[in-house]
Amino acid sequence: MAVRREMNILVVGSVAYDSVETPKGKNDHQLGGSATYFSVSASFFTRVGVVAVVGKDFAKDDLSVLEGHGVDTSGLETDSGETFRWAGKYTDEMNAAVTIETRLNVFEHFRPRLSPDHRRAPYLFLANISPDLQHAVLDQMSARPRLIACDTMNLWIEIAKPRLLELIDKVDVLMINEAEAKQLTGEKSLVSAAAQLVKRGLQALVIKRGEYGAVVFHREFTFATPAYPLARVVDPTGAGDSFAGGFMGYLAAVDDTGGEAMRRAAVAGSVMASYTVEEFGLKRLKSLTQKEINGRFGAFVELTRFHPLGGGQGLPLVQKV
Ligand code: AMP
After folding, report:
1. What distance in angstroms lies between residue 128's CA and the mean position of ligand 1's atoms?
2. Cα(309) to centroid of ligand 1, in Å?
3. Stretch 141-148: mean pLDDT
4. Chain-wide mean pLDDT for the chain?
5. Is 308 exposed, middle or buried (0-12, 13-18, 19+ CB in 10 A)?
6. Pocket test for ligand 1, best of 53, 86, 137, 211 (most atoms within 8 A of CB)
7. Which residues line ligand 1 (CB under 6 A)?
């Protein structure tokens, strides 16, 4: 299979310093951000370019994390001021973070300018950041990318919903969690929320469900993948972005946006997310090997293996008169 080695996915999103507290401990000032987790995860599949801004306080070692994974950082600007900061806490409910503090800092006045190479990227991921910035990147693409996906969060649904809906109407895949889908649509049931969002023109809505896996509401089918059963989850931060990185990374690597590819992409995303949550921050992703990724992909094949009954008959039910 031919895998593209030139810059294949462009991502815009946050590059951040996070302070995270979970039932397994606390970690201040860890490298994070939606674009960071996404690009490191996707870098295992293909070449990724990142568009974002950091402050003068951004450490060289943290830049090396991205560059060490072959991420094109030519679109990562350094501005005077401080790097984006996010503080969050997970209670025993490890599926959703409670935001304690968000400081946009250098992102407040960031106006991205894409290079000619970046404008031609065939796959575009608009990771979680303000919808205005997501639009600013999308508007600069010289040709329509083969696939555009985006993420968001409750903050932007609260303060920038009209702008966000305008964006959703221009993308192919929306990747959000269940609470966000309900908040965005006002629906109480996930299936109704999905129907409403897909009707706006999406190819697929991907719902991330933490320890319960992910569901792809494609316009032609619905597909569900479990999460990998882990005995110990240390830090769920970045799981959603790592999922998106595996999902988009796989699609871009095989250059296929069809339904079958999206099913496998959802499993690839689940594999990457399952590793991220094993340690704080990017620690586990940084040490991850190709062998481990393929090992867990094989475990997912086994986890979901299922033979229908022979002869095409249904379940062996008692005949009722
Ligand atoms: P997730 O993959 O959903 O767990 O996203 C985790 C990352 O999102 C953290 O590393 C944060 O730095 C980042 N983040 C949190 N709030 C925001 C926000 N309002 N805009 C952009 N990124 C954010």
Report:
1. 6
2. 44
3. 97
4. 96
5. exposed
6. 86
7. 14, 16, 18, 32-34, 37, 86, 102, 128-129, 153, 155, 237-241
CA-nearest residue for atom 20, ligand 1, is 129
pLDDT tens digit string along 225-238? 999 999 999 999 99
Q: Average of pLDDT values for 46-56?
A: 98
Q: Where are the domains of the chain?
A: 7-302
Cβ pair 262, 269 in contact under 8 A = no
Four-way CATH pick for 7-302: 3.30.160.100, 3.30.450.20, 3.40.50.300, 3.40.1190.20: 3.40.1190.20
